[in-house]
Design a protein that fits this description.
There is one protein chain. With 210 residues, the protein is an alpha+beta fold. The protein has one domain. The protein contains 6 helices and 7 strands. β1 and β2 form a beta hairpin. α1 packs across α3.
């Protein structure tokens, strides 16, 4: 699952990507060594999806998952980048971006993803419709803004539309596995960027007159 043929030589299988994500999960878990373990696996309680099991996460998506649990961003506001992952136990994370999806997969390493959906950036519909990532083409590194990452990783339901955007905005085409791999490779620089941006916002807020 979760693979397209564009381009095959750069595609990693999903289990390899989840092994990479284990590093993110391990780093997060070691900061909370005293946390209680979930009864059914080794995942610390604070990392498991906080919502109840959801067999139909696409229904009333924004009402059930309004905010990204990893960064707090409004998912409807960032509908062009937001994603959903439903694990095998039907616990679901509604996240703002593939950056935060990579965090979810990393800290829920003992949960097998059953379904992952991403947006069709090329659609004119608002909010952008979600599509299984197996059928999406990713444009990686285009000069397009993207939530939580400096190097954009936008998804398209149509390969021809993705190519049109690439002609205008640069970047390279890949599949979901490619985009997820690049998200992990970008993690350090993206976290540094996010910390800097948030610190600047805090400073500006403190400078405003009461």
């Amino acid at each position: 699952m979760y693979g397209l043929s564009i381009p095959q030589e750069s595609t990693m299988n999903r289990r390899d990507l989840l092994k990479i994500s284990a590093f993110a999960g391990l780093a997060a878990a070691t900061t909370q060594a005293s946390a209680n373990a979930c009864a059914t696996d080794g995942t610390p309680n604070q990392f498991i999806p906080k919502k109840a099991a959801d067999a139909k996460p696409l229904e009333n998506e924004f009402e059930k998952y309004p905010k990204c649990p990893y960064c707090g961003m409004d998912r409807k506001e960032h509908h062009r980048a937001r994603m959903l992952v439903q694990y095998s136990d039907d616990l679901t994370d509604g996240v703002c971006s593939i950056h935060c999806l990579s965090l979810s997969l990393g800290v829920n390493i003992d949960r097998e993803p059953k379904n992952i959906w991403g947006p069709d950036y090329g659609s004119a519909v608002e909010p952008r419709p979600l599509t299984p990532v197996d059928s999406l083409v990713y444009l990686i590194g285009a000069d397009l803004k993207h939530a939580m990452t400096k190097r954009s990783k936008h998804s398209f339901a149509s390969a021809s539309t993705a190519k049109e955007f690439m002609a205008k905005h640069g970047g390279s085409l890949g599949n979901f596995n490619d985009a997820l791999r690049e998200s992990y490779l970008d993690m350090a620089s993206d976290v540094s960027m996010i910390r800097k941006n948030r610190e600047e916002r805090r400073k500006r807020a403190m400078q405003k007159p009461a």
